[in-house]
Amino acid sequence: MPAGGLVPPYYAVIFSSQLNGKEEAGYAAMAETMVRLAAQQPGFLGMDSVRDTEGMGITVSYWQTEKDVQGWRENAEHQVAQKKGRETWYTEFQVHIARVERTYGKTGD
After folding, report:
1. N or C: which end of the chain has fewer CB within 10 A?
2. CB 66 within 8 A of CB 13
3. Which residues contact 15 (CB under 8 A, 6 or more apart)?
4. Which of 49, 20, 15 is nearest to 32 (CA)?
5. Tell me: the pLDDT tens digits for 30-86?
6. Number of structural domains in the chain
7. Where in the sequence is the domain holding 66, given as residue range(s)?
8. Which residues pair with 46 in a beta bridge?
């Protein structure tokens, strides 16, 4: 669900990760579940995500407020996925949280 057309200010949670190749089907199912769950959370604005053939991925989720970001981080189902990711799927990951002040670009024709 691409997040084009958002009007600042808003928050971006940038999650970069490297998969280890273990339990790929379980990872894919959990990722799909987390996208659906995030979309139901207060303040959710959208998401962009990519992953290369070596398992390096970046997912950016967009939120109205910092409180909404915190609510997503503390969601019980999301915490289960976070734990599983740390223990099973990721060799490394980083999370960056930023307030977006300006945005511009070109959308498809």
Report:
1. C
2. no
3. 58, 59, 60, 61, 93, 94, 95
4. 49
5. 999 999 999 999 999 999 999 999 999 999 999 999 999 999 999 999 999 999 999
6. 1
7. 10-100
8. 62
Q: Encoding tokens for residue 8?
A: 């600042």
Question: 0.70 cut: is pTM over it?
Answer: yes
Identify whether 3 is part of a domain. Answer: no
Report if residue 105 sits inside a domain. no
pLDDT at 2 (0 to 100)? 56
Is residue 4 in some structural domain? no
Q: What is the CATH number of the domain that holds 30?
A: 3.30.70.100
User: Does the CA dihedral 67-100-95-31 come out positive or negative?
Assistant: positive
3-state helix, strand, coil in the chain (%, to 5): 35, 35, 30
Q: What is the pLDDT of residues 9-22, one digit of tens each?
A: 999 999 999 999 99
The pLDDT score that the predictor gives to residue 5 is 84
